[in-house]
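Mods, move this if it's the wrong board.
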Amino acid sequence: MTGLDLLIRARRAACPDGIRPAAIGVRAGQIVAVGPYDTAASAESATELAGDEVLLPGLVDTHVHVNEPGRTGGEGFGSATRAAAAGGITTLIDMPLNSLPPTVTVPALAAKRAAAAGRCHVDVGFWGGAVPGNEADREGLLRAGVFGFKCFTTDSGVPEFPPLDALSLERAMRQAAGLGCVLIVHAEDAATLGAAPPAAGRDYGGFLRSRPAAAELAAVSQVIALARAAGARAHVLHLSAAGALPAIAAARRDGVAVSAETCPHYLALAAEQVSDGDTAFKCCPPIRERANAGQLWAGLRDGVIGCVVSDHSPCPPGLKDPGRGDFGAAWGGIASLQLALPVVWSQARARGYSLSEVVRWMAAGPARLAGLGRKGAIAPGRDADLVAFAPDETFEVRPESLLHRHKLTPYAGQVLSGVVRRTWLRGTIVSGTIVSGTVVTGAAPAGRLLTREGTGDDGAG
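Not the wrong board. Structure tokens:
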């Protein structure tokens, strides 16, 4: 290894073949070599990780709601990407709803990119939306660089992003197959939800009954059937109901290109712990019972679920209806970008899973979903997006320490394992993150606005 910009030596590095000692050579923001720990090397800058640190690839979060432009009061690109970097996430893909305008046309994508330009501390890409009436816009969106299309099978919660009915979903699936892109689906069946008792009041059990697992099972079955018929690539978002796992597993065995993700809150939280009126826990689909969470972990173990992503869905605290604690009126969403890694790692290690498995679920899997061939692994040819992680260090979640725009979190007061000590983006420590207790300042945000690989230049943000 010679002529390097950066050399990082780690006694433990989470490489694709397992955790092992390694020396990582970086040139021009890219990993150019991964050798034994004691490899002779020359570099402009060299770093040796502490004995209690593990070098991870930067995590990839393909399910993030930034809300900008138009609803910046909920979250902005500056605050969201600083929080992501502090949590070891170096790439995120923004969802097409919640902003105004939603990302359903090429001009709307341009507005989204303009809002993000120059403000991102990590790399950011964008999903496009599939809504009634924008079929003619989707090919242009794909050419402009979106990573695929998101749709809902039930009310999205915002009027600008209506759901697809059965016929429109079938057309979207066939169109995605023809375009060669993935269709990602919020899968809850509208008819099943319509027949359930409406959510109202402070009782979390009542909210659960309003979003029954049967709604997810019916919608997932529909997605599988349509993907099978169209020969399409489909992805089930934020799977909450473990009862859908057998259908997904069977479809995959049959060769149907369907995959699924779940989220930290479905793995770490449980309906049994939600107090009356504690709307910080409200999200859709809902957090279900502890036994259900155990089955989701089994789905990860068996490879039926391939990704763990945040579904970071922030809002001003007042929208959570804190005065009344009404689960029917409160905004549904959990802000968790900064905490996703320690939440998942704390639960994973307690259940006997390894840090390598967490990396597979939170870096390699999401990178594969989005087709990000330069992300998600410590390997030559990948971007030098890296994280120094202390897996045994613990901390108490204090809302005031979070970098999200709003600090409300259901994890407040929990003691978690795993501290991100440094985050590198293409070989440079991210401005705004903390190194040895000091906030790194001075550098402008260096995140890039990504496009679907093969569609255009990854211009600097």
